[in-house]
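quick q for whoever's on today - can somebody do inverse folding on this one?? i tried earlier but teh output was garbage lol. tokens:
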């Protein structure tokens, strides 16, 4: 997978750059999102306004969103008391969200950090597609007109 190949180019403390891949009427477009994801207000604006506008402009039929995130390992049925970024048992992972007008999948791979080497990824796992403020506006942007 391309995400793993990119990982082989990283330094020990580097992260995967967040990227939006758009499948549009004129072909594929790749957008680096690192500046847009540099703060929570910028990320919210990008997710709610800029990225959906790009999907509509490109007449997108699908997209893939690649980013890193903290994920909780809390498997209990109780609600989370802390956000994943503050959970002491959190796991750093690469997340790939893929969607078209009929399907939405989410794949995650834990990031394994090594002191003087390139980070590597653990096994990929498909998880239930989650909704949220980052992905929902993108799904609405490619949804067929009612």
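ok took a stab at it. sequence:
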């Amino acid at each position: 997978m391309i995400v793993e190949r990119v990982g082989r180019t990283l330094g020990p403390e580097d992260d995967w750059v967040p990227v939006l891949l758009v499948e549009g009427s004129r072909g594929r477009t790749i957008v680096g999102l690192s500046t847009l994801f540099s703060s929570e207000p910028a990320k919210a604006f990008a997710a709610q306004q800029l990225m959906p506008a790009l999907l509509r402009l490109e007449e997108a039929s699908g997209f893939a969103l690649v980013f890193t995130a903290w994920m909780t390992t809390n498997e209990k049925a109780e609600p989370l008391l802390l956000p994943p970024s503050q959970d002491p048992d959190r796991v750093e992972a690469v997340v790939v969200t893929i969607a078209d007008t009929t399907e939405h999948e989410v794949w995650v791979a834990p990031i394994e950090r090594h002191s003087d080497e390139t980070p590597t990824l653990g096994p990929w796992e498909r998880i239930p597609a989650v909704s949220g403020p980052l992905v929902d506006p993108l799904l609405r942007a490619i949804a067929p007109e009612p």
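fwiw DSSP finds three helices and seven strands in the chain. also Strands lie at 19-24, 27-32, 62-71, 91-100, 104-114, 117-121, 125-127. so keep that in mind when u check it
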